[in-house]
Give the backbone structure.
Amino acid sequence: MAEIEAGGGGGKHKGGKKRGKKMSTRVDFTPMVDLGFLLITFFMLTTSMNKPQTMEINMPVKDEVKDDDISKVKASQAVTVLLAKDDKVVYYFIDPVTGEPQTPQITNYGAGGIRATLLKENKQRNPRLDSIPIYKDMLNKGNIGEDQYKGYLSGIRGYKDALIVVIKASDKSRYNNLVDILDEMLICNIGRYAVVDITTPEVEMLKNVNLE
Amino acid sequence: MPKVKVPRKSTSVDMTAMTDVAFLLLTFFMLATKFKPDEPVVVDTPSSISEIKLPESGIMQITIDKQGRVFFGITEQTTREAVLQRMAEKYNMKFSAEEIKEFSLQSTIGLPLSQLSSYLKLDAEARKATQTAGVPTDSLNNELGDWIWQARLANNDIRVAIKGDRDADMPTVKRVIAILQEKKVNRFNFITSMEKAGE
């Protein structure tokens, strides 16, 4: 209870006239508050305030593509990222001279892992990346609108010589890895990437480094 | 020396203000609340920095849980009814009006069509207790593909969202994506949660 009897009452009118006791009109609200907070707790726990977030992904159309429709990309422009088991990533470039895959590198999903590599490689190939902070600044100052900013951003990300990432998930990787690597695409401003099936030589490659 | 008399003060606190606050908050939560749909599986979604919000309606949600079971759900009740009727037609099955009604109240289902009828007869408690097998996805009995196709026929603008568990295995995820591509769905969403700081 919120009230503690202060005492000192009664015993005053000994032998005096019998009077009707003056009842306090105060109501104790404590149970009502209890109930109120109980209900608040209930609604707070059952409510789902934030809508789930999503990440959009476009897959290539599965129809057969005619040979002349395939746009050839320079081998040196692409990096293949293999999602291996135990949250490890293996990536390799194609040697521009021999056309053979270079030695695969093993790394992880942390900020110092695949992200560092992708940022570095993308920066080398896409000189326009530097202007993203400038546009961002303009957006924050209100000089350009949100749509305009997005337009610039996708223009920069889709630069023709920018890094192209080919993502191949091995069967031993988990779903979290796929979302993580797609997240890195956003972080590293890579506009062109594709999720493709893993091939047998690449499975062999993973076996060689004991990650299959 | 005479004792110093401390006047006894009442310790009663005025609760009115507190009640006001409590009920104000209560009203807010009651109005802002939208009950979480009852989902048959708990899925821990991966986090991402993406800030796109998922619309609340017009979604066909494919859930993949830890064990690789696949669940299928549609947000609108009317679409659910239409889809079940189409599915029944395709598989030459009959569903009674009550069964269709009951089905339209299920946010997500995860079992083969052949078991659906007996599942719908159970009450809510028993349903929770049943361990369902997930929607079949193998190429011989590709019910998921049919669900997706019928849902698209019933609602042309429906969007596809995949809600996978962090630990869902890749072959299942790949299989679901392959089915989506087979059914000409080349644009879909991955449901993720907010990136936690320091991750």
User: Anything to note?
Assistant: The helical segments of chain B are 16-32, 77-90, 97-104, 113-121, 124-129, 143-154, 170-182. Chain B touches chain A through 60 residues (CB under 8 Å).
